[in-house]
Design goal:
mainly alpha, 10 helices, disordered N terminus, about 325 residues
Length: about 325
C-alpha cells in the first residue's frame, strides 16, 4: 500500500503534459531562458545607439539647422546629397534599426539577425565615407570662406532684404563690422554709410553715423562658428556614434553567431522525438528533479518499487555456518 501511495505521490508531483506527450511548458519560455543573455546584449546596444543618435540630432538641430549663422555661409544648403544621407542614417539609427534588432531577438530569426548586423555594418561604412568627404569639404570651405563671403556681401548686402537682416543681426551679436573690417563699407562697395549694427555705442539723436564702431571683421567670427560646430558634430558623429557601432559590430558578431547556433540546436531538438515519447515539435523543459521523478514512474521503475527489498547478505555467512557444523561435530565425538 505504501508503495502505491509513494507512486501516486510521485505522479502528482510530475509536471502536467498535453495530449500527445508534450510538456505543458511551451518552447517560447525555453527560448526566452536560453536567449536571455543575447537578447540583453541586443537591447543594450539598441538603447545606447538610440541615445547617441538622439544626442547628435539635438546638437545638429541647435547648432546647424536652427542657427541663423548657417545661412550666412556660402554654398551650404541642407538639401545636399550628404545631408540627405545623414537624415536617412539618423532616422535608421533613431528607431528603425532598434525595431529590427528587437523583433529579430524576440522571434529568434536568423535572417533578421543577419540583416540587423549587416545594417549596422552599412551604417558604419557610410559614416566612414561621409567623414572622409566632409574632412576634405570642410578644409576647402575654410579656404574659400573669406573670398566667397566678401563677394556675397558685395552683391547681396543692401539689395537682398534677408541677407541684410541676417548680416546686421550677426554684426550686433558678434560685435563685428563688415567682412574683414569696417573698411568694407567704403567706396569699394558703394555703401558709404556704416549701418547701426556696427556701432559700438548708440549714435547721438538725429544722427545715423556711429561715433565708435567695431573694429573686428566678421569673417573670423563666422569661421569660429564653423569650426566649433564641425568639432561638436565630429565628436558626436564619429567619436561617439561611429565608435559605438564599431564596438557593437565586433561584439555582436560573436554574440549573434552563437545565438544563431543555439537557435539551430533548438530547432533540431524541436524536430526530433523526445526521449520520453514526446511528439516532434516539443522539447522537455523539466528540471533535473522532474527528470529523476519521471524515471521513477516508468514501468521498470514501478516494478522496482513494487518488489520487496532484498536483505543484504553477510559475506561471511557461509563460513560461519560451516564453523558451527564443524564445532558441533567435534563435540559429538
Amino acid at each position: 500500500m505504501g508503495i502505491w501511495e509513494s507512486e501516486g505521490g510521485l505522479r502528482r508531483r510530475m509536471p502536467l503534459r498535453r495530449a500527445g506527450g508534450s510538456c505543458a511548458v511551451g518552447t517560447t519560455s525555453l527560448g526566452g531562458r536560453a536567449m536571455r543573455y543575447y537578447r540583453l546584449w541586443i537591447y543594450t546596444c539598441n538603447t545606447v545607439l538610440l541615445a547617441g543618435a538622439l544626442a547628435f540630432c539635438g546638437a545638429a538641430s541647435r547648432t546647424l539647422i536652427f542657427d541663423y549663422r548657417r545661412m550666412l555661409i556660402p554654398n551650404l544648403a541642407l538639401y545636399q546629397p550628404t545631408f540627405l544621407y545623414a537624415y536617412l542614417a539618423l532616422a535608421t539609427q533613431g528607431g528603425a534599426i532598434q525595431v529590427l534588432g528587437c523583433v529579430a531577438a524576440l522571434r529568434l530569426s536568423e535572417k533578421l539577425l543577419n540583416a540587423y548586423w549587416l545594417l549596422l555594418l552599412v551604417l558604419l561604412f557610410g559614416d566612414i565615407v561621409l567623414g572622409a568627404f566632409w574632412t576634405y569639404k570642410f578644409e576647402k570651405m575654410c579656404q574659400d570662406l573669406k573670398p566667397a563671403l566678401r563677394m556675397r556681401f558685395q552683391q547681396e548686402y543692401g539689395t537682398d532684404q534677408d541677407m541684410t537682416t541676417l548680416w546686421d543681426r550677426f554684426q550686433r551679436d558678434e560685435e563685428c563690422c563688415g567682412v574683414t573690417g569696417p573698411d568694407n563699407y567704403g567706396n569699394e562697395t558703394g555703401k558709404f554709410e556704416m549701418p547701426l549694427s556696427c556701432c559700438l555705442e548708440p549714435p547721438p539723436e538725429n544722427s545715423t553715423r556711429c561715433i565708435k564702431h567695431f573694429q573686428v571683421g566678421c569673417d573670423d567670427k563666422l569661421m569660429d562658428y564653423m569650426k566649433s560646430t564641425a568639432a561638436l558634430l565630429a565628436i558626436l558623429g564619429y567619436c561617439v556614434l561611429a565608435f559605438l557601432k564599431m564596438c557593437f559590430l565586433g561584439i555582436l558578431r560573436y554574440e549573434i553567431k552563437e545565438m544563431i547556433q543555439k537557435i539551430r540546436i533548438l530547432k533540431t531538438e524541436l524536430a526530433l522525438p523526445n526521449a520520453n515519447g514526446a511528439v516532434p515539435g516539443t522539447i522537455r523543459t523539466e528540471s533535473a528533479e522532474s527528470e529523476r521523478e519521471s524515471l521513477l514512474v516508468r514501468p521498470e521503475s514501478t516494478a522496482l518499487l513494487s518488489s520487496p527489498p532484498t536483505q543484504s547478505k553477510n559475506p561471511n555467512g557461509n563460513n560461519n555456518y560451516e564453523m558451527r557444523e564443524y564445532r558441533s561435530g567435534r563435540e559429538n565425538i
